[in-house]
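Researcher: We plan to redesign the surface later, but first we want a full-length starting point. Tokens attached.
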């Protein structure tokens, strides 16, 4: 019984107890001063980890899989070190604050709500920083929050660049870097030309491509992180530090241009034999040249007169956690925080919709209605490995992959897959699977009031392709010219628990050489205009299936509203509450080894997703 009493006393404070020997009183005093703060900290840390566990795993996967954010894996460690140094400066604690509990409650509620919907993973650093700020303010007061403001704000660097913004600036930055590199290389005496993002070198038909990893975004993010830490360590006014931060991105691009110049000059000077060493050369020179903007940043600080480091760490002992249990109010605040975290964990665990069961087959039947004869083009099923992989991922006939040909030229490939508007963008997926996109432009034709998108790309096997693509919903055509608006639309649809459930339509032709690119583009544009009316008819439910499945069903298959939450009885109940029948939709792809599903928690980081078969 005494052990039960000690545990209760340790967690809930003073309690009346029977008289005990002095040794027990000494043990209890030691527990009050040492163990209880550790138990409170361990409890809150454990609950906070459970609440953000799925999001932390997603962030780690992003650091591992995307080289853009690989350096940001150091941010949490650096934030902890800065917080440790700040606590050693002798910061004092104040009274607890109800405002901190409110901030923590809002952040925990938002985290739980987004966790239930399985969205907002890119907001994880913001939610974590707000939650920690509320906990610090609620338990230690505003003085402690000011002490830890910088390490908490440092976590905001973990927020990834919005994928639609990254997708919209990647290609223009590639073209810009290629133009600048060609200009400088020509000034250096080498005669090179540019075709999109390709740099053509000399009479030997050598070519170097400015890949997305060479557009300067990655080095700029890394340089911005290093500049932020450098500015924090310097002694100077805010104007000097602002100048240093503003210079980080231009210095990063200066180093990027020098690296590209070195790569192109090396290939032009050493010839084709150098290409097999080009990757190792790029890694080594990339690391060495990245030291140049860092050195220039140090010299700029010296010129501004703020090159001296300031004292950022004290020599005193680490601040004790004892104030958290010094008063009953702090004990209650800690208990309230633990309760809020527990409720958030339980909500994520038990209110998250269960996965849907087997999808309806109406989507496959609707896709089978696409005619094999389109104008003077005759179609047949394509039997390429890419098409077979796509059919396997989408359940047999859940995807269209055909070849259409006429008497005027080589066959054209038609690829139609059920997806949401903005997802599985060929521009993104092809580049992610090793293709080189050399040009991206609005299509020469139009489908009603909107234009589709056309790209020219080179496959890993050096085959040239001209592809047009667009997303077709029940009432409109969407090109790939508005990635940010499409991303916002997709996120709002997820909040409403609906998916777009449109179709991605892609038409590709393979010119024999670059001289035939324009002719192939004209044929692709002609066939795209002829195929779209047939694609629009896929949104009308087939008559035979309508009569056999439900005579009273609506005449049209609505694909613009999407699926219902949690299949089975939950979906029927949801539809009955809304006074509508459960909607049918195209099937979602089955997950197989090596083939990603149509949607994933990290879809907001990769709006183009990963298209089965095509990347």
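Model: Full-length starting sequence:
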């Amino acid at each position: 019984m005494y052990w039960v009493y000690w545990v209760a006393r340790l967690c809930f404070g003073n309690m009346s107890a029977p008289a005990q020997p002095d040794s027990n009183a000494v043990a209890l005093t030691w527990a009050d001063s040492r163990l209880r703060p550790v138990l409170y900290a361990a409890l809150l840390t454990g609950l906070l980890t459970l609440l953000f566990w799925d999001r932390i795993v997603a962030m780690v996967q992003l650091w591992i899989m995307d080289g853009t954010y690989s350096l940001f894996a150091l941010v949490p460690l650096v934030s902890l070190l800065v917080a440790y140094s700040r606590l050693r400066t002798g910061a004092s604690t104040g009274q607890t604050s109800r405002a901190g509990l409110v901030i923590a409650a809002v952040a925990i509620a938002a985290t739980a709500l987004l966790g239930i919907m399985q969205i907002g993973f890119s907001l994880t650093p913001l939610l974590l920083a707000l939650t920690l700020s509320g906990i610090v303010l609620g338990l230690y007061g505003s003085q402690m929050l000011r002490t830890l403001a910088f390490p908490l704000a440092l976590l905001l660097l973990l927020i990834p660049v919005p994928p639609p913004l990254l997708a919209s600036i990647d290609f223009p930055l590639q073209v810009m870097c290629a133009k600048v590199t060609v200009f400088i290389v020509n000034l250096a005496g080498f005669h090179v030309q540019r075709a999109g993002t390709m740099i053509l070198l000399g009479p030997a038909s050598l070519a170097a491509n400015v890949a997305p990893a060479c557009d300067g975004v990655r080095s700029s993010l890394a340089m911005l992180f290093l500049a932020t830490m450098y500015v924090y360590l310097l002694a100077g006014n805010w104007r000097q530090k602002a100048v240093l931060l503003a210079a980080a991105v231009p210095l990063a691009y200066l180093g990027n241009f020098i690296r590209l110049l070195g790569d192109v000059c090396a290939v032009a000077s050493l010839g084709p034999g150098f290409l097999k060493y080009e990757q190792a050369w790029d890694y080594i020179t990339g690391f060495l040249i990245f030291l140049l903007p860092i050195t220039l940043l140090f010299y700029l600080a010296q010129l501004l007169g703020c090159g001296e480091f300031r004292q950022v760490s004290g020599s005193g002992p680490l601040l004790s956690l004892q104030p958290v249990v010094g008063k009953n109010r702090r004990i209650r605040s800690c208990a309230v925080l633990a309760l809020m975290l527990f409720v958030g964990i339980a909500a994520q665990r038990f209110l998250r919709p269960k996965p849907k069961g087997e999808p309806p087959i109406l989507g496959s039947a609707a896709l089978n209605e696409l005619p094999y004869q389109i104008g003077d083009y005759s179609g047949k099923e394509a039997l390429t490995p890419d098409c077979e992989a796509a059919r396997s991922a989408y359940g047999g006939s859940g995807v269209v992959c055909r070849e259409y040909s006429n008497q005027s030229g080589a066959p054209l490939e038609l690829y139609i897959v059920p997806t949401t508007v903005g997802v599985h963008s060929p521009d993104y997926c092809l580049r992610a699977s090793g293709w080189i996109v050399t040009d991206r432009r609005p299509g020469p034709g139009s489908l009603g009031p909107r234009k589709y998108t056309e790209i020219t790309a080179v496959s890993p096997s050096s085959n040239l392709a001209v592809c047009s693509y667009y997303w077709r919903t029940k009432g409109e055509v969407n090109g790939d010219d508005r990635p940010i608006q499409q991303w916002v639309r997709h996120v709002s649809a997820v909040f409403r628990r609906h998916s777009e459930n449109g179709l991605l339509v892609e038409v590709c032709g393979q010119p024999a050489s670059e001289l035939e690119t324009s002719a192939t583009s004209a044929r692709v544009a002609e066939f795209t205009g002829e195929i779209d009316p047939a694609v629009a008819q896929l949104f009308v439910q087939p008559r035979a299936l309508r009569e056999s499945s439900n005579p009273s069903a609506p005449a049209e298959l609505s694909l613009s509203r999407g699926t219902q939450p949690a299949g089975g009885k939950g979906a029927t109940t949801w539809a009955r509450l809304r006074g509508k029948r459960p909607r049918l939709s195209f099937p979602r792809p089955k997950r197989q080894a090596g083939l990603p599903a149509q949607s994933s928690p990290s879809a907001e980081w990769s709006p183009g997703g990963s298209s089965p078969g095509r990347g």
